[in-house]
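Model it.
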Amino acid sequence: MLGTSGRAGVTPGLPAEIRSYEPADEASWLRCRVLGLLETNYYDDVWQSKRRTDLELVALEAGVVEGILDVTVPAGEATIETVVVHPDHQGAGIATALLEEAVARLERCGVRSLDAWILEDGVALDWFARNGFVKAEAYVRIHASIDEVDTAVIARHGLVVSGAVLHARIEREAEMRQRFERVHVCRRVVRDLRP
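Modeled.
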């Protein structure tokens, strides 16, 4: 997956190893992802198996995944799909070390920019800003509950809607916050990479 590690040596406080994901990492990867997202607005984005991406990095200590970073690379631009650190290891620089490794690999492959989409999460927004990402665009993401969905969605073909994830233009944020309980601004942040 997009080359090999450019990381040399071990930095105190960081995991012993940052490397490409291997299938044997899956159980530990899934635990790290679920626990890392639990206190974020992505708390219900639970997977039972890992979804493959173009660049998959893990930070390990004693064979246990402490951090993950997955990136898709459809062309000259790349998108961070997942960046998560296990709650017991947050704030130690693991996500930044994973990002540095990813950027080095992406730049070697000629990728020009790296982006990510973030729901309202101050910690994540601050981390991306500290790491050179700037806001590019935004929209409103609504998670309509079963009680709210009838005001926005009409079911056909005998289907019953039990909830929905909806998007709206950013200009409608105030209106959506009045109509729905779970509303987030979703921001796309971008970092230019060296050509």
